[in-house]
Amino acid sequence: QDIPVIAIDGPSASGKGTVAQRVAAKLGFHYLDSGALYRLAALAAMRSGIELKDEHALSEVAAHLNVVFADAEIRLDNENVTDVIRSEECGNAASRVAAYPLVRAALLERQRAFCQIPGLVADGRDMGSVVFPAAILKVFLTATAETRAQRRYKQLMEKGMDANIATLLQDIRERDARDSNRSIAPLQLGAGTHLLDTTSLDINQAVDRVLCLYAEIS
Ligand code: C5P
């Protein structure tokens, strides 16, 4: 039986995580936050003192991640790291770690295992291109870098974390460049993928667009 997958890819801080989660909740589907896996791999590596250049050691860490995705929290080695992995430090480290083919390979099956009845909404950079190429709906969710920096700023403030908007914008631009220009699984708008620019949309409007696209094909 074909299990429907909705792939939502896009650059950092585009809002794809929130949109994907809400679409999943509306449809009663499972949800995969693939970026969290790269963030967890980076965090686990940093905690073990592994250099972010050591591809082999990084892939070992990625392959043996002891992670639990509970309802509202993510646990690494039985510690709640839900907020820790959202830091800019972890995001930047994740983007470095994610450029290594061995790391991506180590996380591939773990991602595919999320595809279970009745369906899955998966967000990341290569959900539609690599992990779930047969996804029934592929969306590329984006917004201008300035809008994304503002959204990330607001998000960090709400979590009581320290942030500077100029630094965030610079980080976002660097991360965009790294994620889009890497040789393996780059972030790209692929054929058959719907472009959804959320610069002037709020979350509810973005969620509705995705649900409409899904309703048209299901
Ligand atoms: O989406 P998020 O910002 O949490 O992802 C963190 C980093 O993980 C990204 O900058 C990207 O380099 C990497 N990533 C990836 N492929 C995915 C999801 C995330 O390379 N499917």
UniProtKB/TrEMBL annotation:
Record's keyword annotation contains Kinase? yes
Stated family: Belongs to the cytidylate kinase family. Type 1 subfamily.
Q: What is its main location?
A: cytoplasm
> Which EC class does it fall in?
transferase
Provide one Gene Ontology biological process annotation.
pyrimidine nucleotide metabolic process
Does the entry feature the keyword Cell division, yes or no? no
Q: Which residues form the Cytidylate kinase domain?
A: 6-213
Which residues of the sequence carry a binding annotation for ATP?
Answer: 10-18
User: Which Pfam families does the annotation name?
Assistant: Cytidylate_kin
Kindly give the PANTHER family that the UniProt entry links to this protein.
CYTIDYLATE KINASE, CYTIDYLATE KINASE/PANTOATE-BETA-ALANINE LIGASE
Q: Where in the cell is it found?
A: Cytoplasm
In short, the EC number is 2.7.4.25
In alphabetical order, the GO MF annotations are: ATP binding; dCMP kinase activity
Could you name the domain of life of the organism this protein comes from? Answer: Bacteria
Alphabetic keyword roster: ATP-binding, Cytoplasm, Kinase, Nucleotide-binding, Transferase
Q: Which GO terms describe its cellular component?
A: cytosol
Q: Which InterPro entries match?
A: Cytidylate_kin, Cytidylate_kinase_dom, P-loop_NTPase
Instruction: Enumerate the catalysed reactions.
Output: CMP + ATP = CDP + ADP; dCMP + ATP = dCDP + ADP
Q: Which organism is it from?
A: Nitrosospira multiformis (strain ATCC 25196 / NCIMB 11849 / C 71)
Protein's gene? cmk
Q: Which named protein is this?
A: Cytidylate kinase
